Amino acid sequence: MNTPMEMNFRNLCGEVAGTDLTNPSEYRQLIGALTFLVNTRPNICFVVNTLSQYLIKPSHAQWIAAKHVLRYLHGTINLGLRYIVADVRLHGYSDAYWARSFAERKSTYECFFSSGPTMISWMSKKQKSIAISMVEAKYIATSTASCD
Q: How does pLDDT run across 86-128, given as a tens digit for each residue?
């Protein structure tokens, strides 16, 4: 079953997008470097998370997507997080996307915490259990975020 990302890249690049990479270690190194960059560039967190799901058997489509992330980073090199001392109240937010994973039907949850205007923690993960409804997915996300 093709994921939406693979279908989009097949439309963009033709059938060549579905072929496996001959040297997947380069892809793994690139995703490792991008994972490190997520600490200061949370705007690429979702795409890096999605691309890291293909570390075992990456295809040409994922390689093209990773190169697009590099181009985006090059174009926005002056952007980043700025940490300042200000209001020290802790704020937490969470959200869930019900059955986002097409293959496993698992929901994805996201949460972040900030101290005043400064973000101090964020994550996006698949839920361990399969939620029956959107309300249950959001309940699991809130519960998991509160444990953080």
A: 667 788 888 887 776 666 777 888 888 887 777 777 777 777 7
Q: What angle do CA 109, 106, 119 make, to 5 degrees?
A: 15
DSSP assignment of 21-50? PS-HHHHHHHHHHHHHHTTT-GGGHHHHHH
Q: What are phi and psi of 65, to 5 degrees?
A: -65, -40
DSSP three-state, residue 70: helix
Structure tokens at 79: 């952007």
Residue with token string 């890291």: 52
Q: What are phi and psi for residue 146, nearest 5 degrees?
A: -70, -25
| Contact in structure between 95 and 134 (CB atoms under 8 Å) | no
Q: What are phi and psi of 145, to 5 degrees?
A: -65, -35
